[in-house]
Structure formats: C-alpha cells, structure tokens
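For consistency, the fold was encoded as tokens, as this record shows:
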Amino acid sequence: MEDLTDNEQEERLRRWWSENWLWIVGGIALGLALRWGWQYWQGSKVAAAQREETAYAAVLESLGKNQFDQASTQAEAMRAERPASPYADQADLALARAAIEARKFDDAAQRLRTVADGSKDAELRGIAKSRLARVLIEQGKFDESLALLDLASAGSFAAQYHDVRGDAFAGKGDPAAARREYDAALAAAKDDVRIDTAYVELKRDALPAATAPAATAPAATTPAAGAPAK
C-alpha cells in the first residue's frame, strides 16, 4: 500500500465521505425505522392479544352469571373485530356449550359450525366438529353427523370421531356398525386423554347382541282328499 501523508489521508477520507454519506445515513435511518417498526408491530400484537383475552374473560364471566344474551353480544363483537381470532373461536365454543346445556341445539350447532368451518386452528376445528356431530345426533340427524366426521382427515381426533360415529350408528339402530366404531375408537385411543375409554366400553357392551336369523319352520302339508287324517 502506498504511503500517504496525514493531509492526503484526510483528503481521501473527506472525498469518500462526500460520495457515500447519503447511503450511510440512509442505511442507518432505514435500520432504525425497521427496528422501530418491528417493535411497534410486536407491541401492537401483544396489546391486541391482551384486549382479546380480556374480552374472552368477559364472555366467560357473563356465562358464569347466566347472562347468556350479554355473553352472546360480547362474543359477536369479538368476532366482528377479529374474525379469525382464536379467542373468538373459544368464545363461540363456550357459548355453544352453554346452549347445549340449555338444550338450545340450533344455536349450539350454528356456533360450532362457525368454528368448524372457519377456525385457523386445526385443534379448535377438530373439537368443534366432534361437538357439532354430537349435537346433530341429539337432533336425530344421524346421517349428517356421520358425513361430518371425515375419518380420512381425523388426525389426532380419530378416537373421538370413531366414538361419536358409534353413537350415531347406535341412534340409527345399527348395533353392528356401532360396535365396530367403538372398537376402532378404543384401538385409536391409546394415550389420548380426551376420550373416556371406560365409557366407550360401557356403551359398546350395552349394545344388543347380534342374533342369528330365526330358522324357518317347515310348511304344513295338506292331506289329499279322501286320505285319513293323522
């Protein structure tokens, strides 16, 4: 490298700065803006989650006081503000549970279908589907319940889906199919704490036993005319 005097080095540095200062300052400004934007976005996300959590807690509080209409209004406001929020899904699940306890099955089915069809969370969709299928059974819509529970896409909900399908077949009066579904539920359950295997076994064992078709009695023969009766 060539030897430069102090003045030459200073002049070269000054020239380099005059040619590049705009890029340097712009880069620093951009970095600061990105950092501020990231922090602002993160803060907004946290604040939004806190608002949603508070709103969900208010729904639960209203339900705890048996104020179903107020809870419904609060849940609808949550859904309107953030349609894809998991807290809005949780609120609908809570309202559906309360509706089921009050035997308002149409209202429960509507809320469960909203979550089953629209939730971004696979776990919440599975929960909503299994609960909706049980509501349909309560309404006597056994075939619709069976069609809802697609075993090919059941995933970790396989045991629950088989269990509910067993209930649907039992409701239809098909104990053989119900028994197959309960057996499949028990086989799929393993360590799944979401299913009560003892209860599934109880339902299976309570099914009517399969009966063999009754033997057909031989047809009676009519004695020929004039033949002595035996």
Notes: The two ends are 136 Å apart (CA to CA). Residues 6-64 form the longest helix (59 residues).
